Amino acid sequence: MDIKSLYREIVNEHNLHPTHKHDLQNPTMVLNGVNPSCGDDINLQLLIKDGRIADAAFNGSGCAVSQASADMMCDLVIGKDEREAAHLADIFMRMIKGKVTDEEKEELDEAASLEDVAHMPARVKCATLGWRTVKEMIDDLQKNGLKDGKVVANNSEVCGACSNASCDRK
Amino acid sequence: MSENIFRRDFPIFQGNNTVYFDNAATTQRPVQVLEAMKQFNDTTNANPLRGLYKWSMEATEAYENARHAAAEFIGAEKDCEIIFTRNTTESLNLVAYSYGLSHVKAGDEIVLTVMEHHSNILPWQMVARQTGAKLVYMEPQPDGTITDEEIESKITDKAAIVTVAEVSNVLGVTNPVKKIAEAAHRHGAVCVVDGAQSTPHMPVNVQEIGCDFFAFSGHKLMGPMGIGVLYGKIDLLDDMPPFLTGGEMIEYVTRESATFAEVPEKFEAGTVNAMGAVGLSAAITYLKNVGFDTVMKTEKDLTTRLMDGLSRIPEVTVYGSKDPARHCGIVTFNIEGCHPHDVASVLDTENICVRAGHHCAQPLMKWLGVNATARASLYFYNTEEEVDRFVDAVGKVRGWLGY
Question: Which of B345, B362, B365 to mutate to test the interface with A (most CBs of A within 10 A)?
C-alpha cells in the first residue's frame, strides 16, 4: 500500500476522529513518549485495575501516523492484562521490522494495517511511539508494581502539550 | 516555460521527474564536479603534503590549488587563511574548541541569534559551560530582521564572541553580518559567520564583511559531502592551539612533546580529503560559470512564483518575510491541521522532495511558536514547472490527509 492509500484508508480517520485522545479522570499510570527528532509527543494514560488495563487514553501532538497508531493501540490494549498487552506490543514491533506471522498479525486487528510502515523507514518511529510507550509502562508495572495504587512513571526530558493535571512533569 | 539549460549537467535529474526542493539540506552535483574528482582519482591520487614523488606532488598541488580557489571564492586575503574541514559544523567546532576555550573567560558573553542552526549553538553552549561565559541571543523582528537596536543592545563590552548565520536555514533571511562584525569589533569581540546557506546563493567577501572567522560546506554548493572550509584571519589562527592533533600537523615530535606546523597545516591533522577539495574547487568553478547574477535572478523568480502560489492556498502559512527576494530560495511553511511529516510523506508520493521537522533549529521553532515546519528550498537548477507541480500538490495535501 502506498502512503496515500494508507492515510486514506486507515490513518486519517484515527487521526482526525480519535476515540481515545483525551485525558482519563483517574489514571494509575502516566508516561510521556517522545520522538525528539520529529517532535511527536504523546502522554499515555492507563487505568490499571486488578492487573488489567481497564482504560487507556492519550493526549499530545504529533504527525497523523503517530496519533493514529496510538489511538489503535489504546483500542487494542483496553481490557487486556499486562501479559497480553506486552505480547501485542511485541507483535507490533516485530511487524514493523517485517518479522511476523499471519496468525500474529490477526491478533493486531486494525493495527495490522500499519504493516506497510515497515517499508517507510522515516515513519517507523511515528508508528511505534504509542507501542513503545505502553511497553515501557507495562515493564515498569511488572518490575515495580503499583505503589499506593498509583505509579507516575516518566521517561521524557521534554514535556509536550499534554493537559493532564496528574503529570508530574508540569 | 523556458528551459533550464543547467539541468543537463546533473546526472541525477536525467530520466525522472523528481522535484528536488531540499537544496538547503544538500545540493546536487554536476558532471563537471564528478569528472574533476575522477580525473584526480585516475591520474594523481596519492597522499598529499608528504610524498617526494610525482603523484604525491601533483596531489599536493591539486589540494593547494583548491585552497586558492576557496580563498578567492570568499575573498580571503591569503590562501593560508583557508582551513579544510569536513563541513560547516566541524569548522564552527574548530573555532569553539580552539579559539573559544583558549580566549573566553568567566563572565564573558557569547552573542548569537535565535535563528542559528544547532551547529552554531551547541559548540558555544559547550564553551559557555566550560568557561563560565554566558550566551546572549539576538531576537529578530517577526519578519526575521535583526534590527540595529537589537545589535547595539545585545553586543556590549562583555562580548568575547559574536556569531551569526549569514542566511537563516529556516527563514532564508540574510542577516546584517557587516554591521554585526563592526559592532563586535567596536566592543573588542571576534565575529564568527556561518556561511553554510549564503555561499551557494550570493557573492561573499569575508574582508568586506570584516568577520574574523567564516565557515561553509562544499556539499551545499554542489561539491561533494565531507569537505568544508574555515576561514580565519591569519593573526588569530597563528595564535590558536591545534584542534585535532596527529599526522601532517607537526614540525618535531619527541617522546614527550611536539611543535606544530604552520597554519593551515596546524589545523589539518591526518590525511586530508584531497579529492573532496578538488571537487569543491570544481563546484566553485561551476558556480562562477553560472554566475551569481543568474543564480539570484532565477531563485528570486522561482521563489516569487512559489510564494504567490502558496498565498492562494488559504490553509498555508509561510514563515519569515513577505518579500520573496529576502528568502534566498528558502520557503518554510505549514498547512493547517497537517503535521509537516505527513506533508513531506504525501509530497514524496508525488516525487516531490521537501524537508520536514525542526531543521536543526529548535530555538527558532520555539520562537515561531511551532513544533515543526515543512521547508521547500530552491536552487538555480529548479524550474517554473517544478514550482507549479509543487504548489498544485500542496493544494491537495489536506485532501489526502482526510480534510
Answer: B345
Residues B273 and B298 in one domain: no
Residue-wise pLDDT for B129-140, tens only, equals 999 999 999 999
Q: Which one of B342, B358, B400 has the shortest CB-CB distance to A63?
A: B342
Residue B258 CB coordination number (10 Å): 15
B55: which strand partners? Answer: none
- 8 Å CB contact between B154 and B146: no
Give the CATH number of the domain where residue A19 resides.
3.90.1010.10
| Global confidence as pTM | 0.91
Which residue in the set B339, B357, B401 is minimally distant from A37, CB to CB? B357
Kindly state whether residues B233 and B358 are assigned to the same domain: no
Are the beta carbons of B104 and B110 closer than 8 angstroms? Answer: yes
- Verify that B255 and B396 share a domain, yes or no: no
Secondary structure, 3-state, B186-218: HCCCEEEEECCCCCCCCCCCHHHHCCCEEEEEC
Size of interface A-B (CB pairs under 8 A): 53
What are B160-175's pLDDT values in tens digits?
999 999 999 999 999 9
Please indicate, yes or no, whether residues B67 and B149 belong to a single structural domain of this protein.
Answer: yes
ipTM of the complex: 0.82
| Banded pLDDT at A149 (limits 50, 70, 90) | low
Query: Is A3 close to B371, i.e. CB distance below 8 A?
Result: no
Range of the domain at B296: 291-400
Give A64's contacts in chain B (Cβ within 8 Å).
338-339, 342, 401
The structural domain count of chain A equals 1
Tell whether A161 is covered by a domain: no
